[in-house]
Amino acid sequence: MAEKLLEIKNLKQYFNIGRPNQVKAVDDVTFDIYKGETLGLVGESGCGKSTTGRTIIRLYNATGGQVLFNGDNVHGKKSKAELKKFNRKMQMIFQDPYASLNPRMTVADIIAEGIDIHGLVKDKKERMQRVYSLLETVGLNKEHANRYPHEFSGGQRQRIGIARALAVEPEFIIADEPISALDVSIQAQVVNLLKKLQREKGLTYLFIAHDLSMVKYISDRIGVMYFGKMVELAPADDLYRNAMHPYTKSLLSAIPLPDPESERTRRRIMYDPSSHHYAENEKVEMREIAPGHLVYCSEKEFAQYKTQYKK
Ligand SMILES: Nc1ncnc2c1ncn2[C@@H]1O[C@H](COP(=O)(O)OP(=O)(O)O)[C@@H](O)[C@H]1O
Ligand SMILES: [Mg+2]
Predict the structure, then answer these.
(1) Does 294 contact ligand 1 (Cβ within 6 A)?
(2) CA 55 / ligand 1 centre spacing (Å)
(3) Sheet holding 285-290: strands in order across?
(4) pLDDT by residue (tens digit) across 133-145?
């Protein structure tokens, strides 16, 4: 496969919510993201997806572990100038297109914020040209530049958020449930826009979603999180065909089926974490069941999974 853009190694993010309570939002998670791919990250609300993204992009200091970007430690000691350079390479698109745009700023100023911070243009005229061109790239037009966020629909606002992220010409974008707040009819449009931009600009995406229905269409590989742990990571088609971890199976069983007859007989599988029975000294870790298909399990479970895996 392609070159690694990011290497996330043993990443931990623990929040102290008043002693002795600690939330292990991200608990020893390791995975790579390849150049030009879309890695889908799924799991139910509260499992640590956003915290993983926010820690990778350095909105939080990691409790432990490493994030390498092109082999360079993002969380290592860096000068202000070096940090600024990193900030430009990694951008984020947020779930809520209402809350994530400053209501008092014009669309032009929202989009140009990064351009201004990084000094990417020589004068006002070039700045506006950039803004117009970005608006066009995301399917809006120059008449939108001097308006305010409240004048737009949810889908249009998400396009503004995408233009803002693109403005600094990043290599890597974390899209944190970018379509969850949108009408179903608009979701595919935004996904298609993201796909088109990826093709044209060679972008790498971490695409976060809470279920497995939409990520299938955008992801090359998919990682499944449960309570701060990555429990399965596989090429997208292999994950749908050969889900090994019982939690992944339960997520898959929650997807409505397009065929009414199959949908009528669809059985929801519930995940019971206590079904795992690990001994105290048993090593539970990510094990590779097929090329690029990793599942979090003990050695005993691994032997069972191997007998279930369909080539
Ligand atoms: N800033 C924070 N302070 C304390 N706890 C947090 C903070 N952010 C997230 N959490 C907790 O960490 C866990 C993971 O949250 P989050 O990453 O937002 O999950 P997801 O994006 O998968 O819904 C949750 O239990 C959440 O309550
Ligand atoms: Mg989240």
Answers:
(1) no
(2) 11
(3) 90-93, 172-176, 204-209, 38-42, 221-226, 229-235, 293-297, 285-290
(4) 999 999 999 999 9
